[in-house]
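Ops channel
N.P.: pipeline sanity check, posting one input/output pair.
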């Protein structure tokens, strides 16, 4: 009888121990989840910035393979105002909104054009830079105006606002073929190699390449569409959006943004 009682006591003790461990583990997970829910992106010590590292002069790799550029300097200055660190993360530009919404990056900040379609996917800061989509061809080309693109082959970066600009213009119905590239660099390379006749590209980007490779390219007189750059923030994270906008506003007021613009463009091009 005593053996049975002892056996039942041991079973009860083991059961109680297992329940206690499970409760403790559950409580620990609950506390961790609660902690994570309170530490949203706006409260992070480090903000991860998603960029296309071939998008000069906004964000690109220099001769030492260091990531530099106008947007890189802007992001670092804003992070300093927000008292957080910043991590620059090169991404596949075609998956930028997916990277943002998955939480792998906190901001899209690299010549990111405001469009109606993108407004459905992300929150935007106020625009900080004006841009336009232009058509570039080789310096010796006979092309001079948009109508000359009829029957020609066009290169363009995949999932870029350049595609929207081209599609919105009537000349889109007359071009022979549009080839999409992962980066503008690849599109320009094919232009030089004669595989395409022209490339639709951001004006600020082309201005940079025109100074780096003088005599190689020319830009058609007519541009396709004006646009504006802003920073993309994950939908629902108004707290981060507001903190970032406050930092950008302060950078405009104290001259930080103008100084960065002078460094990269030789003039203050930042929108106030």
């Amino acid at each position: 009888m005593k053996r049975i009682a002892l056996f039942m006591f041991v079973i009860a003790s083991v059961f109680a121990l297992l329940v206690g461990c499970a409760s403790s583990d559950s409580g620990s997970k609950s506390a961790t989840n609660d902690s994570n829910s309170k530490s949203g992106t706006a409260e992070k010590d480090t903000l991860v910035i998603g960029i296309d590292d071939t998008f000069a002069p906004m964000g690109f790799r220099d001769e030492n393979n260091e990531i530099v550029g106008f947007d890189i300097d802007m992001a670092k200055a804003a992070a300093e105002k927000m008292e957080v660190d910043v991590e620059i993360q090169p991404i596949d530009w075609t998956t930028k909104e997916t990277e943002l919404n998955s939480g792998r990056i906190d901001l899209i900040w690299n010549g990111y054009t405001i469009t109606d379609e993108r407004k459905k996917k992300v929150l935007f800061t106020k625009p900080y830079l004006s841009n336009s989509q232009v058509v570039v061809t080789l310096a010796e080309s006979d092309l001079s105006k948009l109508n000359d693109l009829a029957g020609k082959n066009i290169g363009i970066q995949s999932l870029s606002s350049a595609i929207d600009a081209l599609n919105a213009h009537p000349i889109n119905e007359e071009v022979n073929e549009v080839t999409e590239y992962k980066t503008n660099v690849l599109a320009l390379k094919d232009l030089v190699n004669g595989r395409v006749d022209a490339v639709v590209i951001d004006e600020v980007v082309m201005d940079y390449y025109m100074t780096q490779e003088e005599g190689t390219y020319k830009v058609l007189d007519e541009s396709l569409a004006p646009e504006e750059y802003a920073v993309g923030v994950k939908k629902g994270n108004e707290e981060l959006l507001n903190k970032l906008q406050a930092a950008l506003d302060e950078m405009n007021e104290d001259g930080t943004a103008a100084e960065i613009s002078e460094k990269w463009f030789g003039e203050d091009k930042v929108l106030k």
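N.P.: looks fine end to end. Confidence is low (pLDDT under 50) at residues 1-42.
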